[in-house]
Specification:
Blueprint (H helix, E strand, L loop, with lengths): L6 H9 L9 H13 L10 H4 L7 H8 L16 E4 L4 E4 L6 H20 L6 H9 L4 H11 L10 H10 L8 H14 L8 H11 L30 E5 L5 H12 L10 E2 L10 H10 L1 E8 L1 H5 L1 H18 L2 E6 L28 H17 L6
Parallel strand pairs: 3-4, 3-5, 5-6
Antiparallel strand pairs: 1-2
Helix pairs in contact: 5-6, 5-7, 8-9, 11-15, 12-14
């Protein structure tokens, strides 16, 4: 190979000796079978039995298991689909932000239909906001996988935003936005390269995972039939069960308000397990306690302010560990913007903030600020690492 050839070019040259540029007839038929079982026109009338994981031959069962070789979304728990059938309890379960199973199903269907409508109208810039607003803050599997199955020409079958950022970085691209914007960005870049002429989106994905897998063992096995992508909360990370709160001591008042909302969850059975440095006992090695807490976190809430961004300890010790955990282990980063600061110019801006950065809590009245804290709690309930 020419000495100027980039590593991915050499890998692609070798890969193409044994792989086609387009999906096999079996894979094409599998996608067509999904669309035939669940035509877009029928989604609005789907029943709970037809939609939910835990029920045979359901929409979510096809997404996670039957079409696994068309883009893996296995991992995490059934809560990622909003509503599910619990076989152990013999009853419907749903995320706590919904009133009941039917209400959860209606929200999921509305989100899916609006994503599909926006795609049909080529309104790709609206997709991530629709997904976050209607399906849930971090319900990436349900945003990405159905859109690929219905519109394989518009999307790569990749539903993990950190994997997309990783792949974009390998090609020298600066990642922009959330899941579906990242997906479209990577697809556009690959399609601009002559080496990928004639490729369909499935084979692009297979090449990426087989030849340039994401870090720290997150890539699927070499056989695409065994493919597995890490979900935002992966059940294999069962040592991560805590919500870590990162804040500046100058923002103690805001922390106290968040803790008040978290303590209120004790009134139901969905109590959130959280950690902040006020729990460090006298005489304990505080830096070791913080490291231990970060290592056990599946979600990190960042209380972002000018004091937070100026904190040397946070910048040197907390944020690097949390950002690495987000990239390697799928830890969820939830920034809450407390006051005016240059958040949008920092590395944190790639994570969607709970509130609009242009409207920090300091600009809100007490009621409005409590709505933001309540939203944080609702997001945490949706992201629990176990089926509570």
């Amino acid at each position: 190979m020419n000495s100027a050839t980039k590593p991915w070019q050499e890998a692609l040259h070798i890969w193409l000796r044994q792989h086609p540029k387009t999906a096999t007839s079996h894979q094409q038929k599998l996608r067509e079978d999904f669309v035939r079982h669940f035509p877009i026109e029928s989604l609005s009338t789907m029943t709970l039995d037809q939609y939910a994981i835990g029920k045979p031959d359901s929409f979510c069962y096809w997404l996670e298991f039957k079409t696994n070789e068309l883009g893996g979304i296995r991992g995490g728990n059934a809560a990622k689909f909003g509503v599910w059938w619990s076989k152990s309890e013999d009853r419907w379960r749903w995320n706590s932000s919904y009133q009941n199973a039917e209400n959860a199903l209606a929200s999921m269907k509305r989100g899916l239909l609006e994503l599909i409508a926006a795609t049909r109208n080529l309104q790709f810039d609206k997709l991530d906001k629709i997904g976050a607003d209607l399906l849930g803050y971090n319900r990436y599997s349900l945003r990405g996988k159905p859109l690929y199955l219905y519109f394989p020409e518009y999307f790569l079958p990749i539903s993990n935003p950190e994997h997309l950022r990783y792949f974009l970085g390998l090609f020298g691209e600066k990642p922009k936005g959330d899941l579906l914007e990242l997906n479209r960005q990577l697809l556009a870049h690959l399609q601009s390269l002559p080496q990928f002429d004639g490729f369909d989106t499935l084979q692009m994905m297979i090449f990426l995972y087989e030849c340039m897998p994401p870090k720290k063992g997150s890539a699927p096995p070499k056989s695409i039939h065994q493919q597995k992508q890490i979900d935002p909360v992966d059940s294999s990370n069962n040592n991560r069960t805590t919500v870590f709160i990162s804040y500046s001591h100058e923002n103690q008042e805001e922390l106290n308000r968040l803790l008040l909302h978290l303590r209120a969850t004790k009134l139901n059975n969905n109590t959130v397990k959280w950690w902040d440095d006020t729990q460090i006992k006298p005489g304990a090695l505080w830096d070791e306690e913080i490291k231990k807490a970060m290592a056990s976190a599946y979600v990190a809430i960042l209380l972002v302010s000018i004091d937070y961004l100026a904190s040397e300890f946070i910048l040197k010790h907390e944020l690097p560990s949390l950002l690495t955990a987000a990239e390697d282990d799928g830890v969820i980063i939830l920034p809450v913007i407390l006051g005016p600061c240059n958040f949008k110019y920092t590395e944190l801006a790639r994570f969607q903030a709970v509130n609009n950065p242009s409207i920090p809590l300091s600009k809100m009245n007490k009621h409005e600020a409590d709505e933001v804290w309540n939203k944080v709690v609702e997001i945490l309930h949706e992201m629990k690492p176990k089926d509570f």
